[in-house]
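Q: My labmate handed me this sequence with no annotations at all. I'd like to see what the chain might look like in three dimensions before we decide whether it's worth expressing. Could you predict it?
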Amino acid sequence: MSIQQGSAGGMPVLILKEGSTQTKGRDAQKNNIAAAKLISEVLRTSLGPRGMDKMLVDGLGDVTITNDGATILKEIDVQHPAAKMMVEISKATDNEVGDGTSSVVVLAGALIEKAEELITKDVHPTIIVDGYRKSALKSIEFYNNLARKIDGGDKSELIKVAKTSMQTKLVSRESSELAELVVNGALQVSERNESGYNVDIDDVKVEKKAGGSLRDTNLIKGIVLDKEVVHGGMPKRVEKAKIALINSALEIEKTEFDAKINISSPDQMKMFLDEENKMLKGMVDKIISSGANVAICQKGIDDVAQHYLAKSNILAVRRVKESDMTKLSRATGARIVNNLEDLSSKDLGSSDLVEERKVETDKWVFIEGCKNPKAVTILIRGGSQRVVDEAERAIHDALMVTKDVMEKPAIVAGGGSPESYVAGKLREWSSTLSGREQLAADKFAESLEVIPLALAENAGMDPIDTLTELRTKQAKGAKWSGIDARSAKIVDMSKLDIVEPLSVKEQIIKSATEVASMILRVDDVVASSKSGAGGPPGGMPPGGMGEM
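A: Here is what I predict for the chain of 548 residues:
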């Protein structure tokens, strides 16, 4: 149906084309709030070390088992526009700080749910949004007062943070060993500057292969290439390697324009082939004269060139990804050469060992023992593909939190401790506000307490009793008291070494407040129909706004 508007003359004015739908006022708000709450509910049970995993099956039947918020929401094909916004904040948090992807959605859902209570009491959404924004700024201030400053290069503190991140995942039993690998890797590729550390986690290459157990996961001070040596006659192991990185093909390239070669006698044919061989030998001679005994090529290597390289005892790998070439350059100190004519001994990198090894059924080339590599590899092993996939996600999160702490060296306790403390402080502060903003600040404090409540519920504890006890302990001065889900008790989290980066907490507050404010301010949803389509309107599920 088209939406009509009555004009002064009583004639209907058609505004939207046929098939468009409009939801207005309280109905639109309710629909959006319901969708946001549903998404939040999905992730609520996955919070904390006792959180449950989700099994996700995609359209092709591939199974993913995880409790990582960002992965869950990415795999769910969400249609509702408000739910899509919740998915986006999870993605943004993952990209920015790497952890807290479930917490941010749970908090956003709680903020929206609490706001709904105020809307039913005729508090205007704009007033709620203003109150929320002020509360968010105040919360970040309280978080900063609570946080403990550390040294960004302190290995023991970094291991605590990485370990805490992994304890909520499938790899929790191996979290000690894996956390050490992650921190060693991050410290290796980090660069010190005036303001602290700069860490690019892209310099930590993560390779995974099912087989063995998680304990077989190791850190390689160099790069692992999922390629094999190109020729059977080449050495499979080279010690004290001199590595040439070549970005041009060791092949005779075809001309860009159509060309025809007329050969009228066998002699001419022989001359032609000899010339081709000569050109390829010239390329190989260039590599030999530079002193390289390992050649890694981004493009192809001709069979004849392979033969000459094998004769000269040079180990060669071809068709290596550009990203891997960059990492190799950072690891070995080699310069990537675009033109073979420019190759000299100065361009070569070095490593103690280059070796082809069999990893399960595949042959991979290991370049290890680099002097001071600025790129390293973590090779993940595990009992099945599902396990190594989940381990990869856990290691990514741990790398990100390590990077966060190195770049902003401040930590707070885990186990819902800072959320409960900040909620108490917000309640005290809200009494200084006037009017209805005070109600919004109180609701913000209640929303923050949803995190410790969810942790307690998932651990099988009584949520109300737990929260009351937690508040009491913190009011008596034990600021770092939190919920230990494993023992189902309230303890000092600093003694258990359960700590989280301050930057993650700040990001959660900012993102959750922004998305809640955005959803609450919507009072009209217009869904256009797809041109010529008779089905449900674009971007909307069958049945309109209420379904998901």
